[in-house]
Amino acid sequence: MDDLLEQTWDVVIVGGGNAALCAAIEAAEAGRSVLMLECAPKPYRGGNSRHTRNFRCMHSGPLSVLTDTYGEDEYFDDLMRVTAGKTDEGLARMAIRHSESCLPWMEQHGVRFQPSLSGTLSLSRTNAFFLGGGKALVNAYYNTAADLGVQVIYEAHVTHIAIEGHQCTGLDVTITGQSHRISARTVILASGGFQGDVDWLARAWGPAARNFLIRGTPYNRGVVLADMLDQGAQSVGDPTQCHAVAIDGRAPKFDGGIVTRLDCVPFSVVVNRDAQRFYDEGEDVWPKRYAIWGRLVAAQPDQVAYSIIDAKSLKLFMPSVFPPEQADTIEELGEKMGLNGDALRETVDQFNAACRDGDFHPTELDGVATEGIEPPKTNWARPIDTPPFYGYSLRPGVTFTYLGLKVDAGARVQTPDGPLDNVWAAGEIMAGSILGQGYLAGFGMTIGTVFGRIAGQEAASHAQ
């Protein structure tokens, strides 16, 4: 350990997830000495990347497990739709274009893919799924990095990036209770957002944030982000925006991961604690709209909602990790879920009466909509009328926050006086540059992979 702490490294990377690993591999392949500082214990290494399952990828024809074509303009239009235009178009299009070359690079470095799973067929053209999920991807990259000579220190808590002028002169890190100063020719910051710090969330969102569940890693507490902002690095993104999805209300407070996500919303009616609907459940296909539901539920009383389906829809989405509540009547289901059963019955009856006949297609926009009811349901609007009935409680689940560090196309960290000479950022710590709001399934991995690789290449060149 002392040898690792006392030498001057070509590249020091703060973080241990996808972006950090991509940067480490690129820098090591360029012949540079690389040290990764991962604050999590080894079994929990990998940050939010442990919980991912796919990578959104542009391609001009069938590519690996991807089918057909997914061009730059369509990809960008999908991003514009979910972000309402709040993105840096130059950086966004660069990430999209680079994604096509990233997929074969990932395969060359140990990542294996599989065809889309049942319940995710709508993604077969746009998203490549990892065989074994995010944990398998993380382990593959760590194995590749080790073969390249990358050194890793776990439970290494970086507390300060020493900036003098436009130069990083060292990093302060605490390991097993002792403080150390590490020297580096270049530094890559890939330590994520601040979702693990509930007090910071509450300052940004208000007291309601204390009711949120953190489905991402608890080790991303924003320490390095705050340190850099305090030293004048330019910020990007809104502190009140984050990747927040509606997850199972029975999930743990931290680190529940992707298995706690519920994909039932498009085939359901969603009500609040007063058994009232509050938004169009069928607005768009789930990969493009699922991330808005965390914020929608956060705005409801007690930050809770309930998704109600019937027997017709139970097999139309990925199965949940916890079984739903079940009952033979809507009233009974409501009572089981802590709702007023009669009120829920009235809401469902009103919804059913507004449904119209149409050709139901669960994996694409089908235009099967309600009439004469607010809010409308604009797709997949079938009556909830076939027992048994099922219900899930929903709570906001925060994956990562969008406040971050501003970077340029070379991933270099910016200040009001220009870029820092030897500091780059990749992954969630800079994703707010592209994700102003909303989310697109698999796009976080795209950002991390593209900018991680760029940061590693640029740092390696500078260190030479």
Automatic annotation (TrEMBL):
Keywords: FAD, Flavoprotein, Oxidoreductase. Residues 10-436 form the FAD-dependent oxidoreductase 2 FAD-binding domain. Its cofactor is FAD. GO terms for molecular function: oxidoreductase activity. Its EC number is 1.3.5.4. Pfam families: FAD_binding_2 (PF00890). NCBIfam families: CobZ_N-term, PRK08274.1. This is Fumarate reductase flavoprotein subunit. It comes from Actibacterium lipolyticum.
